[in-house]
Amino acid sequence: MPPLRLLALLAGLLVSARAGLAPLVDIVGGRKARRLEFPFLASIQNEGRHFCGGALIHTRFVLTAASCFRNLNPGVAMVVLGAYDLRRRERSRQTFSIGSISENRYDPQENLNDLLLLQLDREANLTSNVVLVPLPPQNAMVEAGTSCQVAGWGNRKNGGRLSRFPRVVNVTVTPENRCRPNNLCTGVLTRRGGICQGDGGTPLICNGLAHGVASFSPNPCGKGPDFFTRVALFRDWIDSVLNPPGQGLA
Predict the structure, then answer these.
(1) Which GO-annotated molecular functions does the record name (predicted)?
(2) By C-alpha distance, which of 163, 232, 234 is closest to 195?
(3) Are 155 and 198 contacting, i.e. CB atoms less than 8 angstroms apart?
(4) I want to staple 102 with a disulfide (CB 3.0 to 4.6 A). Which of 95, 117, 225, 239 is the partner?
């Protein structure tokens, strides 16, 4: 994104901010999520260490960001569902290897089409700790000013440590002319907050639907804007992967 356009976006967020309404907000910002508040969250791990988030959208598929695997072979990663405290071996956890991946014209240079479907090696067992998150219909829009939520185990500051528990922050969708056509952009209007390292691939939840997949932030963590892949642009493709002709997965 051109520097002047980024400066305009940051200036717009600053003008809209209501100073003094809240303390510094932690994923960067926000609060510790309650247990079972986001039971569709997936922790994607390498050698037992979380490095990206994701969302369970089908008993055999997790939605995440293609950029999570830019420098990592998916064959060595594991998907953990039902996690809450990453430092404990919780009985609620279900751990999977990755059977296959599906991507749709991902462009790492431009961070475009930053979406990936991970097929699990077996079906997830749906419980109170492991549920599916619904997706928006093809081409659905999210209006600027919409309040959404994003949660994850990512760092609470640049270069910081991963969070032990998922943290959630309320974010606001920015106008389209302050983003890119294939992305949803968000900011936090009460000081600092947003995604950080380790939050890539985590879902953006707006009106109960996973409208975005965390892709990148061009600025230090919590200083926004944050860029999410627009899931609604890929809904038809996602359905074609989940329900291939003659397979009957769903």
Answers:
(1) heparan sulfate proteoglycan binding; heparin binding; serine-type endopeptidase activity
(2) 163
(3) yes
(4) 117
Q: Where in the chain is the domain with CATH 2.40.10.10?
A: 3-34+135-232, 41-132+235-242
Topology classification of domain 41-132+235-242: Thrombin, subunit H (2.40.10)
- Find, among 224, 216, 161, the residue nearest to 192 by Cα: 224
Overall residue count recorded for the chain in this entry = 250
pLDDT digits (tens, 9 = 90+) for 122-145: 999 999 999 999 999 999 999 999
| Whether the predicted pLDDT of 190 surpasses 60 | yes
Determine the pLDDT at residue 158.
72
